Amino acid sequence: MSNDPRYPGDDDEDDAQSNKRTRLVMRPDVAESPPATSLGAEPPRGGSVIGTTRLVGVANQGGGGFSPGAPTVKMQNQARTQYIREGTVDTEPVAGWIVVVKGPGRGGFRPVYVGMNSVGRAPSQRVCLDFGDDSISREEHAFITYDEETRTFYLQHGGKSNLVRLAGKPVLAPTELKPNDLFRIGNTTFRFVACCGPDFCWTSEVDDV
């Protein structure tokens, strides 16, 4: 009962309104949202976990920390195609070839150019015989020459102690080298294959076929 005679029964109404207030009732099958915790710490175990939210970011470049607001960056290996092109094209006219038929580089070949060709193992030689035969001198073991005016090939030695042999005979002076001739430098035997000769020369035009 109210003590105020003007409002009899107000205390009963207040008690009734208090009883009608909303109360928070915890359900055992629903867990409370866990409070915000620092990264790496385990959330409190208050019941069954319905879902979890993971904050994804990228590491700071300087201090090695973690920036939650930064976007995720995915790095993937991508196949790349590299085009390799020769820097220069050799347009020097070739007069013939020497082919290894016996020795460490059997099956290999080297071009012989117009004019005088120094023969040796060094890369500086015009005809570089880097097939693995160490009995061949590094520089000027022999010379192969193509005379464009007479359309003739010559083989001569380079003054080394290891002789150059043509058809089994030592080459002591410039000797004519003919197509399919066999000659030996060191322990390697070569067959000569001509491109230029009586039927063709780079100074003459080729008829259309």
Explain what this protein looks like in three dimensions.
With 209 residues, the chain is mainly beta. The chain has a domain at 94-194: Sandwich (Tumour Suppressor Smad4). Helices cover 5% and strands 27% of the residues. The protein is built from 1 helix and 13 strands, in the order H-E-E-E-E-E-E-E-E-E-E-E-E-E. It has one helix at residues 10-19; strands at residues 58-59, 66-67, 94-102, 109-113, 115-120, 127-128, 142-147, 152-157, 164-166, 169-170, 175-177, 182-185, 188-194. The chain has a 6-stranded antiparallel sheet with strand order 4-3-13-12-9-10, with no helix packed on it. Strands 6-5-7-8-11 form a 5-stranded mixed sheet, with no helix packed on it. It has a two-stranded antiparallel ribbon with strand order 1-2.
- Identify the overall geometry: elongated
Beta content = 25-35%
Q: What is the SS-derived class?
A: mainly beta
Low-confidence spans: 77-85
> What is the second-level CATH architecture of the domain at 94-194?
Sandwich
> Helical percent range?
under 10%
CATH class of the domain at 94-194: Mainly Beta
How much is the average pLDDT?
A: 76
N-to-C series of helices and strands: HEEEEEEEEEEEEE
**Number of beta strands:** 13
Q: How many distinct helices?
A: 1
- In whole angstroms, the N-to-C terminal distance is 131 Å
Radius of gyration: 48 Å
Largest sheet entry: 6 strands, antiparallel
Would you tell me which CATH topology of the domain at 94-194 applies? Tumour Suppressor Smad4
- How is the largest sheet built, in terms of strand order? 4-3-13-12-9-10
